[in-house]
Design brief:
Helix content: 55-70%
Number of helices: 17
Low-confidence stretches: none
Radius of gyration: 19 Å
Structural class: mainly alpha
Number of strands: 0
Length: 280
């Protein structure tokens, strides 16, 4: 399709300037993101990293003491939270709280996007557990998969609104409309912020996405988040069998899943949906 009369896409410099308006990730969150990529992190290391950030610790303890967890007594320290909830849960909660603080929870659209991100994180985590991959890395990858879309809404609200109007009027794919107004789609913008935040390489791969037209086989984490994205966005009201049939056959094959495994996975996601609501 041709360009919009009187409009020009944002330049890369303008997008970079917009990204600067987002708060930087704290050193604590950066360290926790690095720890999610490792299998040798221990409780003391995670607790010490979080405890050095008083603001993050306070927000995390509020979440830990919420009715969702139904703990018998009050959790008063990060070490206690790790013992009661488990190190991996605390680490995921801290990353979610830290990254979420970069976006405006008072904005309805941003809050909805973050809620979707949390559901996708839960879906990716539970699928990774079933497939024998790093579930903590999957949680982070699922959470940040739509980072570009969140940035578009948070930093370029007016341009994003024009993009959606154009898509509606012309009946085109959202990615095409995004390229018309941003010069790239949400995957490209997400990759820019991921690089700016120095996120782990695997997380950057997930955010950038993968096309079946590309040569080679994607990292399993890319496939895991691909499926998590589908079931968190497009399967409302479908039966388990219909969900299975909606999933890309090549991805299902690469992960070694069958209908029964997908049905069990969907049960896991449903059982943990309240956690996504809690973190949104």
């Amino acid at each position: 399709m041709g360009s919009v009369a009187g409009a020009r896409p944002l330049t890369k410099t303008e997008i970079e300037q917009g990204l600067q308006r987002l708060p930087a990730l704290s050193a604590t969150v950066m360290q926790l993101l690095e720890l999610t990529q490792r299998n040798d992190a221990d409780v003391d290391q995670v607790a010490w990293t979080i405890a050095r950030d008083p603001a993050l610790s306070a927000r995390l303890l509020r979440v830990a003491n919420s009715p969702f967890f139904g703990l018998a007594g009050e959790v008063t320290s990060i070490n206690q939270a790790c013992m009661v909830l488990g190190m991996n849960t605390v680490r995921n909660l801290a990353v979610a709280v830290g990254v979420g603080s970069c976006f405006n929870s008072d904005n309805d659209e941003q809050r909805q996007l973050w809620q979707q991100a949390m559901l996708k994180a839960i879906a990716a985590q539970t699928l990774a557990q079933r497939c024998g991959h790093n579930s903590e890395s999957a949680f982070t990858a699922g959470m940040l998969h739509d980072l570009g879309k969140m940035v578009m809404v948070a930093c370029f609200a007016e341009t994003m609104q024009e993009t959606l109007v154009y898509q509606d009027v012309h009946g085109c794919e959202l990615a095409e409309a995004e390229r018309m107004f941003f010069g790239m789609d949400q995957r490209g913008i997400g990759a820019m912020l991921a690089s700016h935040w120095c996120l782990p390489e695997l997380i950057q791969q997930v955010i950038a996405g993968y096309s079946e037209a590309e040569e080679g086989v994607p990292h399993p984490m890319v496939d895991i988040v691909t499926l998590a994205d589908i079931i968190s966005n497009k399967t409302i009201g479908l039966s388990h069998e219909e969900v299975f049939e909606s999933l890309p056959a090549k991805v299902i094959l690469r992960l070694g899943l069958d209908s029964r495994a997908v049905q069990s996975w969907l049960g896991d996601v449903g059982a943990n949906r309240a956690m996504a609501d809690l973190l949104a």
